[in-house]
Design goal:
395 residues, binds S-adenosyl-L-homocysteine, 6-stranded mixed sheet, alpha/beta, Rossmann fold, 10 helices, Transcription Regulator spoIIAA, 3 domains
Length: 395
């Protein structure tokens, strides 16, 4: 173990003793010269005791901790971490012929801060959110191949938009492995879909709504479903399998609507129950009549990406939910979500409460939803919790 060193100010090791994986710049007393962003550093207390090892970065978070033990960060380290992540997904039944799409690595939730890996059939989509993970992408890919064996044929690197802006990083989106013979269709809970990791948003599909889609399927029977912000139509094809009377999917992106139609078609060819509209959500909701739908999904993009945007975001959630309360049929069900990490579930619930109060309708909470088990939250890093949702019954 021969890494450059960082020494902390007195008492600044307390949060690390509780396994919080970030070291803020204000906690650093001194550091070796010539540290390069992304390199591995060892961290010591003022007294000189080893406390952590991690990726050094420039900014308010100065180190993202990879381990609290003195160990080499080599291929064998990455293999151990990835194997632990893979074993967890296998042990909770996410890896099967019925389901081959899941998040393999969820950053801090898998003790790998800055790294996201989603699996779609034989392809891993690798996303770095830190320069350290970007610098280590090749050794991590090698480790990934060892851990996943024959089940993995491709690794697609997609970090152009997730890395902190650094012109000289050379982070093109590209295949790091395979890429010639790509299985196009993945399966989630027995339903097929085309994940578009090359042109699509994020890693190509929103795997984080898997459990919530399965819940929606149970409520869809005989209902007229409106899936707002549908992206590639996940909630729509679950509703169809759940015997919805009709399903309308809406997204402002026409590319998303094309993908939605393709995904519905592969599961339910020529099924006339489904129609999709490329339109702004508020415009669409403004045009429909009260009572047209008795199941509405609201899954908008993150309205707040940072703390400064919280106030406006809460207004946005309130406005959006208020329209849904206005328009939904009596006896209707609303699935409403926020994926903004900076909006707490209490704040979100308050925004939805305000919207309900404005509509004057009687509303009951049936379920409080969250992110699925392949997006685990490290108990020492509550910041990893981001997805929240409510299922509401509206009289
Ligand atoms: N529910 C989806 C994920 C939604 S992601 C799923 O299960 O996969 C958010 C989506 O909202 C994106 O596809 C984006 O194109 C769409 N969007 C953003 N702004 C919008 C607007 N004003 N009106 C309609 N759709 C919008």
């Amino acid at each position: 173990m021969n890494y450059k060193k960082i020494k902390l100010k007195p008492k600044k090791e307390d949060s690390l003793r509780r396994f919080h994986p970030w070291i803020f710049s204000g906690a650093v007393q001194e550091k070796d010269n010539d540290l390069t962003e992304g390199e591995v550093v060892t961290v010591y207390t003022t007294a000189g005791d080893f406390i952590a090892i991690g990726h050094y970065q420039i900014g308010s978070i100065e180190v993202r901790v990879l381990s609290f033990e003195e160990e080499d960060i080599d291929q064998s380290f990455w293999e151990r971490r990835l194997r632990s992540a893979f074993d967890l997904r296998k042990s909770i039944g996410l890896v099967s012929s019925d389901n081959n799409s899941y998040r393999l690595v969820h950053g801090e939730g898998d003790s790998l801060p800055g790294l996201i890996i989603d699996i779609y059939a034989e392809t891993a989509v690798f996303q770095s959110h830190s320069v350290g993970m970007h610098e280590d992408r090749l050794v991590i890919s090698e480790a990934l191949k060892v851990v996943m064996g024959d089940s993995l044929k491709n690794i697609y690197y997609k970090s152009e938009t997730t890395l902190p802006y650094k012109a000289d990083l050379g982070a093109e989106n590209e295949y790091l492995y395979g890429g010639k013979d790509v299985t196009e269709v993945a399966v989630e809970n027995g339903l097929k879909f085309y994940p578009d990791w090359v042109k699509g948003q994020k890693t190509g599909f929103f795997v984080d709504q898997r459990d919530n889609r399965a819940l929606l399927e149970k409520y869809a029977n005989g209902r007229s479903v409106l899936n707002m912000f549908c992206y590639t139509g996940g909630f729509s094809f679950y509703a169809m399998r759940g015997y919805a009377k009709l399903v309308h999917s809406v997204d402002s992106s026409s590319k998303a609507i094309m993908l939605t139609n393709k995904n519905v078609e592969i599961n339910f060819p020529d099924d006339k129950r489904h129609e999709a509209y490329a339109e702004d959500a508020f415009k669409f909701l403004g045009k429909i009549n009260k009572g047209d739908y008795d199941l509405i999904v609201l899954d908008p993009p993150a309205f707040a990406k940072h703390r400064g945007a919280i106030r406006n975001a809460l207004q946005g959630y309130k406005r959006l939910n208020a329209v849904a309360f206005d328009k939904i049929a009596s006896g209707g069900i609303i699935f409403t979500f926020s994926c903004s990490q900076v909006i707490t579930k209490e704040a979100f619930r308050l925004a939805v409460f305000s919207a309900a109060a404005m509509s004057g309708r009687k509303v009951r909470i049936l379920h409080q939803l969250s992110q699925p088990a392949d997006h685990p939250v490290n108990i020492y890093h509550p910041e990893g919790e981001y997805l929240k949702g409510l299922v509401l019954y509206v009289e």
